[in-house]
Amino acid sequence: MTDPARPCQVPGCIALATRGPLCAAHRFAEEHPELLWTDENLARREYERFVPDAVARLRDDPAGVSRYLLGAERAPLPMPALLDFQFHSPRAMLLIADDLPGELLSHCFVHEIGHLHEQVQRFRQRRRRGFASTAESRPADARYAPWPDVDACRGREDVRLGASQQATLVENAPPCERCGRQAGRLEWFYFMTPPETWLYLEGFAGWMAVCGACREQVALFIDRMN
């Protein structure tokens, strides 16, 4: 069992970036070993057989999103795969679990390239570059995630925006639709979906702005997803 006080060592993990405690996804994975994969040697062979060729084929498509994929690496992830984007950018590293079985590699690769395409589209917008669109299946006031998940991330002190970074996001964020409060006066914090969502390729994380007075999720800028 990993010491929960030890900083997470996974590239792209928010706990690694902040030198904080073991991230929630790692704790969840350790508590549910039946959901993890083992055979390291087989996983490495399958990765080397499939992923470099898949990346090369992607590079041959000039009309696609290949120039935004910085590379693909194996990593000790507690989830199948992860796209780790540069700050406010469509460029990302694709991290693939070093124990992911070969039969899931192609599915994960195609799935993550689809998400890469979605991020590229966010930054091809003329206005509000990088701004995530509203999830159609959610209520207007919970447009990105259920409020209990959002509230659990509010008030965090371990992850903060620098002044220049916040200025970038504020410039590309809309005001509150209800009261018109401008983005610079909204509450900004780092949001992460619950641990189990990352195991099932449904996770995302990024900077969110809410209007506390109106109970509105106003903006989201994704920088990690799977």
- Which sequence of SSEs, written as H and E, runs from N to C? HHHEEEHHHEHEE
Tell me the domain tally.
2
**What is the number of helices?**
7
Q: Categorize the overall geometry.
A: globular
Number of strands: 6
Low-confidence stretches: 1-7, 16-22
Approximately what portion of the residues adopt beta-strand conformation?
15-25%
Using the CA coordinates, give the radius of gyration: 18 Å
Physical arrangement of strands within the biggest beta sheet: 1-3-2-6-5-4
Mean pLDDT, all residues:
81
Summary?
With 226 residues, the chain is of the alpha+beta class.
Blueprint of the fold:
Elements (H helix, E strand, L loop, with lengths): L13 H5 L5 H8 L8 H20 L9 E7 L5 E5 L6 E6 L4 H22 L23 H7 L9 H10 L14 E6 L2 H5 L4 E8 L4 E10 L1
Parallel strand pairs: 1-3
Antiparallel strand pairs: 2-3, 2-6, 4-5, 5-6
Helix pairs in contact: 3-4
Could you describe the 3D structure shown?
With 226 residues, the protein is of the alpha+beta class. The protein folds into 2 domains: 37-123, no CATH class; 140-225, no CATH class. The chain has 7 helices and 6 strands, in the order αααβββαααβαββ. The chain has helices at residues 14-18, 24-31, 40-59, 102-123, 147-153, 163-172, 195-199, and strands spanning 69-75, 81-85, 92-97, 187-192, 204-211, 216-225. Helix 3 (40-59) runs parallel beside helix 4 (102-123).
